[in-house]
Amino acid sequence: TPSLCFADVPPVGPADLPLSLLELGCSGRFELITHPLPHGLPPTTLNLETEVEKQFLRDPAWLPIHDTDFVFQKFLKVAQRKVDVDSLLSCSPSALPSGLSVVRDPTTGMLLDFTEVLLENTGLSAKNSLSLQRQPGPPSESLRGSNTNYPFLPGGMEELSLDEIRKKSELEEEIDFEKDLLKVPPGFKFGMDFTSKAKPEVNLLSLLSEVEDSSDLQREEEEKDEEQKKEKASNVLRTNSLEDLGIKPTESPEEKKKWAIPVDITFPCDDFYKRIPNPAFKWPFELDVFQKQAILRLEAHDSVFVAAHTSAGKTVVAEYAIALSQKHMTRTIYTSPIKALSNQKFRDFKTTFKDVGLLTGDVQLSPESACLIMTTEILRSMLYNGSEVIRDLEWVIFDEVHYINDAERGVVWEEVLIMLPDHVSIILLSATVPNALEFSEWIGRIKKKHIYVISTMKRPVPLEHHLYTGNSTKTQKEMFLLVDAAGNFLTKGYGFIVLCSWSLHPPRRFFFIPGWFSTCLCPPPLYLYLYQDRSVWLALLHFLSQRQQTPVVAFTFSRARCDDNARSLESMDLTTSVEKAEIHSFFQKSLSRLRGGDRQLPQILLMRDLLKRGVAVHHSGILPILKEVIEMLFSRGLVKVLFATETFAMGVNMPARTVVFDSIRKHDGTGFRNLLPGEYIQMAGRAGRRGLDATGTVIILCKAGVHEMADLHAMMMGKPTILQSQFRLTYTMILNLLRVEALRVTDMMKRSFSETSAKDSRITFKRISQLRQTLSSLPPLDPEGQLSDLLPYYHTVAELRVTNESLQKAIVESVNGLKALSVGRVLVVNNKQHLNALGVILQVSNDAVNRTFTALIICEKGNEEGKGEPDAASPHLYNTALFIPEGPCSHTVQKLKLQDISAITVKTLKVIPDRIIDNYNKRQQPRFRHEPPGQAISTATQELLRLAEANPGGLATLDPVNDLQLKSVDVVEGSMRLRMLQDSLKSFTCIHSPTFFARVKERMSVQEELDRLLFLVSDQSLTLLPEYHQRIKVLQSLQYIDGGGAVQLKGRVACQISSHELLLTELLFENVMSPLAPEESAALLSCLVFTQKTQVEPHLTSTLKESIERVLSVARRIGELQRECGIPQTAEEFVGQFKFGLTEVVYCWARGMPFAEIALLTDIQEGTVVRCIQRLDEVLKEVRQAARIVGDSVLGSKMERASLAIRRDIVFTASLYTH
């Protein structure tokens, strides 16, 4: 804390300047203050004498003036106290170097003796080791860990000490596994022969005859050469290896090893109760095969991935794991993507298991429990901070794993999966995904353990998908079946629907509303659509309630439309009087914990009226406590119609009888699009309650005409979205890994799903060792004499080939190039058969991807079939001399690929393609083979031969830049590069050596593959490596890390912060919040959690306006720095993330304004306001911890006061699920 230093100075005189000397913190720095501070000088340290006098002599509680006896006794206690100076010196005892070990009788188990044993790793602690052998930290850090702790070693990563690394490198240098192997063991006369011999294949009969001398033929041979026989037989008898006999072993299991093992669930699991006679948990119903198979794997302590349809019963697997860990006295962590789902699971598991705790951003209940339910972000922070809970952890259950596809938060799942230690087994629960095996293979590979993949074949309750067209009396009570329960798409049904809709909505539409009539061809006005909407919903819901098809979930992809639809049903009443009474009493009881004013909020009053009639709304704008009331009433069957957005399908496990889609188009943040199959299945899957309904009903409304059949088919029958990696680098991740020397950020990147799904390192390493062996067995290159420039020549040729191919590709993809490559164009052809041969184009294929050119090419007589070997030397690259046949000239017609054409000449010939091709094809038949070629072919062949003889040195070719007018930078540069390389080829001496190219070709192709694979397994091949270097540059510029990558104080602060870590840390270090009051600080920080747009301009204090300007300038500075360092995000985009629309609302709330009043200050819905304030509380906690690290206790206490000011009333009412 700042303190003043006083010196013995004379009193201030008229000539003195108003100066004060202020010491800053404990750093020893002083600052001269020339102008008065706004709140005066900070408090000085009080004099010790006055402090003692005040506390002991003037305090009547401590020193009562009337009770003298009591005072005297108290005085004696203080006066006669023994002074213990040693108590001021605290020193933690060093770890004991040894311990006692018990010696027992091996047969009886009786205790015989104690022996002293030396202990290893006694100096390990959470500050210096990743090992589970390290000492536990202080109890206060046991749950969440500390940001100075090392994490535990992630499974699948090997931890090496410095000594081990040094030893390993020495060993690698000394041992040559090819030459320096010891062959004879000590004490043996003979040893092993490691030279590789080509061993003949041996059949067992000849082997027996060798050993037992059973064959007469063999005997005759033995008599001829007896010595050979003895030696051979003795070798056979003495061998220990089938390999020595030439019997090849099968492939090693390591080569075949797959980490993901699919489990077959088509056969019943009959021996389940034999294999598990005493299960850890029993259910009142018979388990499905997939559940039994999963439980068998859990009993074997294996990891499982259960990809099952909605309502198939995935929770059974989680329940068994929790029961098993309670039996083993270990712990289980259950993670979910959404806080609402965590709260629900807490209630469900609490009733089943009792010993259950909950950890979310704002709630911590029974953290010492055996089963902890938390959001994935909290588990990530526990792993990075080395929480002691991880030691006892047996299972981590990831629910709704398909959430890994979430662009914003998907990376958290990958981080957690990579960071989990080896002793923890993983249970993944997901909706059906097409690539469950690939995803499990990735997890198995990074954790080096098998993952058993269990998928369900079909839904327990099949779905029927219908279309409902509208409000005419004809179709009011009719739904059209589109997909039946067996999953067949009925195209006939679709045709019938289209006919019906045409009869309803002819092109000239009539809209009739009582008191208003119009005939028009233009689109109807908006209020007409709303009227039509209302009538469709009323008709449909009357029809469904008559057929007892409730409860209904109506998915609507707009919060405003949800509210409008619910309000438009004021005439509909779907509940009985008994149900009304039950709803009323539950509603009143649930809201009894709210303050009087909060119970009268407009949203609560509106929802109460809707609920009594069996209608409700569920979306992010609804108050959290109301959402919970609605969910609980819905699960009891008292809410008959629920208008919900997509989040209801993801975050709440509440099936209905019927699901209705208001539309099949949604806005995804960038634009409107049709629902993806995965999204549709997730929502439609809410239909059909197991044990209650035979089938689930899904209805799609066709309000503006029938949807296209292709769209419906793609959505209903398409495959769900595959699991994709959303891995990205965050500053928090980089800093958390940089502070631990043993972990590298590149290791995390290598293990991400996006990187490892592309390559299996085991196979790659095996291939690398094979290539190295091949390379060492090839003869070395002779660097002397004529071949001294062989390697540079090879590299020039390789570059020339690549440049030529890219130019040809650019030509073919251009309009002018395709015009040039038309029928009659003369080409220079080079491939396996032809060397600089002239050809003429006869046909061009229409395939734009793999375009081919049919051409007539001249060749030697007898070489029409192309028996010539591929010319490895590629002499056409340095020799442009055209092919002229030595004997009679013949021809061939071939389909050429792009790479076969080495040049496009300026010449064209008049040819008759059809005649040439027909004549050539005819003469390929055996009976016409000896016929002379037709007139068209002869003419074309003679023309080509004449051209070649007239221009033996080469024909003029079309220049891509000058002739074909291709002006792009790549083509111009490529063309210049090509000319330069062609000129440089003539200066090489090695081209005059006859066998020069064959000697280098094989060696270089092996070397190139080896280089490619070595690059693949190196850090350089990582897709995110450039971005990693850019982010490191940003962190170094802002002094979060030093030049060597060591994390500095700013970096340690940023580790504490989960989102917008750079901005928040910079604000902290620039003292932006110092002049602000607690409620202003809270208001300012709301920009970090509020993400929506608002039309209302907030009214703010001048201090807040200044602070907002400072925040924006800091954000702009960070954004510009990131841009300079190469990160693609612009400064404007970075600054645009921070929205100040809720600043006034939070400010007024922190100052005590009732919720009903602050709701009027903004157009943002109540539920969103509550969620933002709840998340703001988490940010304030993070800032408080960061202030503690910096040593700024003033800011810490200010954040605590701000947090207390906003934690009140309806915003922080406890969840109904947790009480």
UniProtKB/TrEMBL annotation:
<keyword id="KW-0378">Hydrolase</keyword>
<keyword id="KW-0694">RNA-binding</keyword>
<dbReference type="InterPro" id="IPR025696">
    <property type="entry name" value="Beta-barrel_MTR4"/>
</dbReference>
<dbReference type="InterPro" id="IPR012961">
    <property type="entry name" value="Ski2/MTR4_C"/>
</dbReference>
<dbReference type="Pfam" id="PF00270">
    <property type="entry name" value="DEAD"/>
</dbReference>
<dbReference type="GO" id="GO:0016787">
    <property type="term" value="F:hydrolase activity"/>
</dbReference>
<dbReference type="InterPro" id="IPR001650">
    <property type="entry name" value="Helicase_C-like"/>
</dbReference>
<dbReference type="GO" id="GO:0055087">
    <property type="term" value="C:Ski complex"/>
</dbReference>
<dbReference type="InterPro" id="IPR014001">
    <property type="entry name" value="Helicase_ATP-bd"/>
</dbReference>
<dbReference type="GO" id="GO:0005524">
    <property type="term" value="F:ATP binding"/>
</dbReference>
<keyword id="KW-0963">Cytoplasm</keyword>
<feature type="region of interest" description="Disordered">
    <location>
        <begin position="129"/>
        <end position="154"/>
    </location>
</feature>
<protein>
    <submittedName>
        <fullName>SKI2 subunit of superkiller complex</fullName>
    </submittedName>
</protein>
<dbReference type="InterPro" id="IPR027417">
    <property type="entry name" value="P-loop_NTPase"/>
</dbReference>
<dbReference type="InterPro" id="IPR011545">
    <property type="entry name" value="DEAD/DEAH_box_helicase_dom"/>
</dbReference>
<dbReference type="Pfam" id="PF17911">
    <property type="entry name" value="Ski2_N"/>
</dbReference>
<dbReference type="GO" id="GO:0003723">
    <property type="term" value="F:RNA binding"/>
</dbReference>
<dbReference type="GO" id="GO:0003724">
    <property type="term" value="F:RNA helicase activity"/>
</dbReference>
<keyword id="KW-0547">Nucleotide-binding</keyword>
<dbReference type="Pfam" id="PF08148">
    <property type="entry name" value="DSHCT"/>
</dbReference>
<dbReference type="Pfam" id="PF00271">
    <property type="entry name" value="Helicase_C"/>
</dbReference>
<dbReference type="Pfam" id="PF13234">
    <property type="entry name" value="MTR4_beta-barrel"/>
</dbReference>
<dbReference type="InterPro" id="IPR050699">
    <property type="entry name" value="RNA-DNA_Helicase"/>
</dbReference>
<dbReference type="InterPro" id="IPR016438">
    <property type="entry name" value="SKI2-like"/>
</dbReference>
<dbReference type="GO" id="GO:0070478">
    <property type="term" value="P:nuclear-transcribed mRNA catabolic process, 3'-5' exonucleolytic nonsense-mediated decay"/>
</dbReference>
<feature type="domain" description="Helicase ATP-binding">
    <location>
        <begin position="295"/>
        <end position="451"/>
    </location>
</feature>
<feature type="domain" description="Helicase C-terminal">
    <location>
        <begin position="573"/>
        <end position="738"/>
    </location>
</feature>
<feature type="region of interest" description="Disordered">
    <location>
        <begin position="213"/>
        <end position="253"/>
    </location>
</feature>
<dbReference type="InterPro" id="IPR040801">
    <property type="entry name" value="Ski2_N"/>
</dbReference>
<keyword id="KW-0067">ATP-binding</keyword>
<feature type="compositionally biased region" description="Acidic residues">
    <location>
        <begin position="213"/>
        <end position="225"/>
    </location>
</feature>
<keyword id="KW-0347">Helicase</keyword>
